[in-house]
């Protein structure tokens, strides 16, 4: 049956082409219906023979003057052949004849956009939209969305999508798009109101429930978001993105076991991705199940061999288990292409320090403070390492340097005092401790934690007691 219809259409086209040849040759009985001309234009257009298609349009317009549909057809071909101004002139003529064809305004928009006249394109559509209803109005609103997107008026894109969904609440294209633009513009409250209205009319609209959940997530109402996603998966148990977002919401709420369940559901429904394995690994990390965390980080790493962060994450699981040698191997792998990455160097320095490899540890911490001279962590680890190695003179110098580089962080006055005491310079050490306590006495706990034996110094005990009395007044 299908083959028969195809043969019939082919014979009709063959006959139509013969009629067109007769018309061009000026033979008698060469009259062609308007629909026939339109079919010929379509034929030549499909074969990218645009000049032939334009010639057909000329014959058609001569035979059927003042026919808006043919003028619009020719204008479309002029736009394809980049004759935008000629196309606009024709479309103006067509508009005088018939304003009811929405394609007229879509083509005008295309021509104005091609001429880089976005505001004019938007103006055409804004006026035209008022004259249409139903599907045609929706089509024009989608066109207007694209125009606003083209000249980066993103708030107006969102406004158009709201108008579309008020016209057609079940429009899937608009529902998909508004989810993205809600997140992009941050207009979550408006999205919540809109989707609640849609759900009242269409309680089984899974996309509306999903968008409601996404909007709640956008304002960090994760529990409400989860409620919305539960409705999504109740309607469609294979809605993969709902499970993905549920995993994220559970993560934000630190519900790591539930997050793992949601993310594993995603893995059942879609192809594995490194980001999914990494997220599951992160959950196990937070649950202090470091072996399982490492298992999933390694899965992610096998899929994305260029992501050095995954080697760093694997190393951290080993560090949490005090497996310093294994951690060092992973960190060295991570550092192959990012030799001076500060976080990796900091972790590597901590590992070397635990293994009492002071020289390597100092090299790593030195890299960190060179890259991030204002970061406290690098300096504190460097100073702890110097203290551990009994490099007291160097410690005094670096504590002062750290204080200057970090714009006077008080903690480094405490460090300097500690090194001075350790170096036997008790008088100057006590003076530094006085200065530090005057700036921030609460940091005394960190000072004592560096080396609790410091409390054997009478001056230290007296200074602490004096400030404690001040605090109790």
On the 0 to 100 scale, the average pLDDT is 92
Note the gap between the termini.
Answer: 101 Å
Stretches where pLDDT falls below 50 for ≥5 residues?
none
Q: Quick one: how many beta strands? A: 0
Q: Which series of helices and strands comes N to C?
A: HHHHHHHHHHHHHHHHHHHHHHHHHHH
Beta fraction of the residues? under 5%
Helix count, per DSSP?
Answer: 27
Major pleated sheet:
none
Structural class designation: mainly alpha
Overall, the morphology is: elongated
The radius of gyration computed from the alpha-carbon positions, rounded to a whole number of angstroms, is 36 Å
Helix content: over 70%
How would you portray this structure in words?
Helix 9 runs antiparallel to helix 10 (172-185). The model has no long low-confidence stretch (mean pLDDT 92). The protein is built from 27 helices and no strands. The N and C termini lie far apart (101 Å). It is elongated. The protein has a domain at 405-473. By secondary structure, the chain is mainly α.
Spell out the blueprint of helices and strands:
Elements: H1 2-25, H2 34-46, H3 50-63, H4 68-80, H5 84-97, H6 102-114, H7 118-129, H8 134-150, H9 154-167, H10 172-185, H11 188-201, H12 206-218, H13 222-235, H14 240-252, H15 256-269, H16 274-286, H17 290-303, H18 308-320, H19 324-334, H20 342-354, H21 358-371, H22 376-388, H23 392-405, H24 411-422, H25 426-439, H26 444-450, H27 458-472
Helix pairs in contact: 2-3, 3-4, 4-5, 4-6, 5-6, 6-7, 6-8, 7-8, 8-9, 9-10, 10-12, 11-12, 12-13, 13-14, 14-15, 15-16, 16-17, 17-18, 18-19, 19-20, 20-21, 20-22, 21-22, 22-23, 23-24, 24-25, 24-26, 25-27
